[in-house]
């Protein structure tokens, strides 16, 4: 009989008086890889917190390894030995691989560290998974793929019987993602369970035994593997991306009348080699690279933070000194975390960097009020809200509209669909389409082609 690793019975949980989980039910057995498909992000962060930490419940019970660890009466223990791996590293920089795996455990009591001993302890784990990573490599030197592997090993060594992985494919190429899937199956055969969270059903079926569909803070369906699964989830998908499908399948562009507005010609640096492409007004191009570090180096050249060994950038056929904020704009990865200023008002966030076009914007209140009046109909009743109180969609609308009013000729979107649920993905498609309708060339920089591939006019794939 298979042992139950996790059971959540009718779990209801509130934050600040708002329901995050409502009658959430889920069972995961030993050695099972359970997929979780969030139709929307409602309650997802709370679920991840509850798996690791037993916070007060409004209703329900949580069992971990046959022990009741939380209920509406109170938690039996504060922490659960459940590992969580997200796209971010989760490793301590400045420490080696061996240090991160062995030294940071609560049970580690040795005061005198012997690297040779740690290397010896790590060797059988690496041999078992047939993946080579130097025990002496520092965390900041690892690739995204290696960081996920080290995190899995860290939780296996720590004795976690349930490891949660959230959208790990965002920064990992296809070949390396297959190795991650093989690693999960290897440890699943040893009795370790996994919860694999992703917003794409196709990705989940590549490795999962079954998939739980989560919507509005509860599990609405458990899908066994098979053709019926895709049909079962279609109704949830259509509720959010029906409009986006119309945007994705746009008429093929007329290449004969298009004039390139941005061109990268022979850009070469440490990781980038002889990168050449051009993109036209109103066009969307997907630039895929298997290494997220290459994307970072390209952006550093584009912004002028570093200088390529050779090559040049052109706008309207003229060579430019790269800078961001005028004719070129960049929408960063997870922009709501990096491109908004909580201490500034909504209107000031919207007008940020607008002084490049309108120098008087900060001197004359009437100019900012004019911006408010012009965009009130498009953005809705949001100007009186605090930025940190905006919904995720409202934050994205603020960021993309700020970029649009700067009227850039080329906009670079870095992994724009990361952490985006179905509803948010459809809105991002619309916002990028709005930029293109205003004449901007849109370049998507991504490791994973999910979502972006359907929207782009062209794909350039770099190894």
List keywords for this structure.
25% strand; 19 strands; globular; six-stranded mixed beta sheet; 2 domains; alpha/beta; Rossmann fold; five-stranded parallel beta sheet; 463 residues
How is the topology of this model organized?
Elements: E1 4-15, E2 18-29, E3 33-38, H1 44-52, E4 59-64, E5 67-71, E6 82-85, H2 97-103, H3 115-129, H4 144-157, E7 162-166, H5 174-188, E8 193-197, H6 201-205, E9 210-215, E10 218-224, H7 227-248, E11 260-268, E12 275-280, E13 284-289, H8 292-303, E14 310-315, E15 318-320, E16 328-331, H9 335-338, H10 346-351, H11 365-379, H12 392-405, E17 410-414, H13 422-437, E18 441-446, H14 452-455, E19 458-462
Parallel strand pairs: 3-8, 3-9, 6-7, 7-8, 13-18, 13-19, 16-17, 17-18
Antiparallel strand pairs: 1-2, 1-4, 4-5, 9-10, 11-12, 11-14, 14-15
Helix pairs in contact: 2-3, 2-4, 4-5, 7-13, 12-13
């Amino acid at each position: 009989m298979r042992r139950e690793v996790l059971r959540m019975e009718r779990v209801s949980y509130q934050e600040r008086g708002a329901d995050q989980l409502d009658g959430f039910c889920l069972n995961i057995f030993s050695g099972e890889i359970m997929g979780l498909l969030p139709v929307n992000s409602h309650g997802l962060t709370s679920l991840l917190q509850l798996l690791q930490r037993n916070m007060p419940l409004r209703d329900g019970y949580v069992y971990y390894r046959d022990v009741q660890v939380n209920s509406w009466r109170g938690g039996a223990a504060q922490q659960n030995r459940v590992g969580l791996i997200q796209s971010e590293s989760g490793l301590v920089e400045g420490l080696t691989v061996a240090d991160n795996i062995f030294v940071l455990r609560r049970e580690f009591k040795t005061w005198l560290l012997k690297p040779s001993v740690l290397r010896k302890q790590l060797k059988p784990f690496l041999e078992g998974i047939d993946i080579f990573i130097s025990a002496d490599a520092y965390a900041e030197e690892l690739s995204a793929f290696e960081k996920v592997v080290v995190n899995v090993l860290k939780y296996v060594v720590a004795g976690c019987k349930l490891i949660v992985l959230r959208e790990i494919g965002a920064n990992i190429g296809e070949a390396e993602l297959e190795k991650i899937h093989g690693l999960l199956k290897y440890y699943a055969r040893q009795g370790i369970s996994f919860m694999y969270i992703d917003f794409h059903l196709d990705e989940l079926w590549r490795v999962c035994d079954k998939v739980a569909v989560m919507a509005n803070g509860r599990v609405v369906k458990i899908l066994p593997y098979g053709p019926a699964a895709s049909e079962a989830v279609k109704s949830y998908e259509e509720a959010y991306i029906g409009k986006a499908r119309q945007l994705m399948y746009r008429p093929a562009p007329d290449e004969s009348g298009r004039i390139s507005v941005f061109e990268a010609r022979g850009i070469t640096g440490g990781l980038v080699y002889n990168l050449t492409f051009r993109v036209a007004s109103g066009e969307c191009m997907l630039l895929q690279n298997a290494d997220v570090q290459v994307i970072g180096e390209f952006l550093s050249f584009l912004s002028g933070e570093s200088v390529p060994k050779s090559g040049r950038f052109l706008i309207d056929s003229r060579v430019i000194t790269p800078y961001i904020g005028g004719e070129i704009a960049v929408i960063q990865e997870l922009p709501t975390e990096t491109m908004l200023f909580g201490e500034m008002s909504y209107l000031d966030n919207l007008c940020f960097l607008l002084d490049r076009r309108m120098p008087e914007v900060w001197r004359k209140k009437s100019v900012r009020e004019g911006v408010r009046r012009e965009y009130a109909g498009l953005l809705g009743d949001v100007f009186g809200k605090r930025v940190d109180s905006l919904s995720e969609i409202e934050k994205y609308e603020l960021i993309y509209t700020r970029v649009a009013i700067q009227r850039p000729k080329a906009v670079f979107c870095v992994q724009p669909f990361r952490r985006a649920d179905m509803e948010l993905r459809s809105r991002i498609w619309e916002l990028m389409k709005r930029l293109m309708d205003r004449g901007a060339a849109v370049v998507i920089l991504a490791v994973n082609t999910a979502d972006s591939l359907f929207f782009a006019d062209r794909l350039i794939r770099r190894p």
